[in-house]
Specification:
Blueprint: E1 2-5, E2 18-20, H1 23-30, E3 36-38, H2 41-74, E4 76-81, E5 88-93, H3 95-106, E6 115-116, E7 121-123, E8 125-127, E9 130-134, E10 137-140, E11 142-147
Parallel strand pairs: 4-11
Antiparallel strand pairs: 1-2, 1-3, 5-7, 6-9, 8-11, 9-10
Length: about 150
């Protein structure tokens, strides 16, 4: 009997997967626990409709990420920090500070975990951390560290 899984079921399948299950297993275990529904034409149509909605939403999120990425490529975030002799900073500049400065200057709210620093920023200069906006969209953000004056 063909069934559509409503949740992930260990050793059986993932959510929204259509599987072939034994009739007794489906009627006595999967259906009563609301883990699956029978793969009727109406249920299959509903599954396809939900998959289309998910795909449209994913495409929209990616388009928004690409648009934001284009904005971020063109801007430079400038941070003023205290530093000692030779341009060495007191402490290090973190992704949190970069995200806060970006929001303060442009109003673009970005999660600090999306900003990937290759190494801690401990000296003055220009840096280009990667910003992961979407699994398929990665851009470099220009960050300028200057001495507080």
């Amino acid at each position: 009997m063909k069934v559509i899984l409503l949740q992930d079921v260990p050793k059986v399948g993932k959510k929204d997967q259509v599987i072939e299950a034994k009739e007794g297993y489906a009627r006595n275990f999967l259906f009563p626990k609301k883990l699956a529904v029978e793969a009727t034409p109406a249920n299959m149509k509903e599954l396809q409709r939900q998959e289309k909605i998910r795909a449209d939403k994913a495409a929209q999120l990616k388009a928004e990420a690409v648009e934001l990425g284009e904005k971020l490529k063109e801007m430079t975030v400038t941070l003023q920090v205290k530093c000692g002799a030779g341009g060495k900073l007191f402490g290090a500049v973190t992704s949190k500070e970069i995200a806060e400065q970006l929001e303060k200057n442009t109003g673009i709210k970005l999660d600090k975990r999306k900003i990937v620093l290759e190494e801690n920023i401990k000296t003055l200069g220009m840096y280009r951390p990667t910003v992961k906006l979407h699994p398929d969209v990665h851009v470099e953000l220009a960050v300028k560290i200057v001495e507080q004056g």
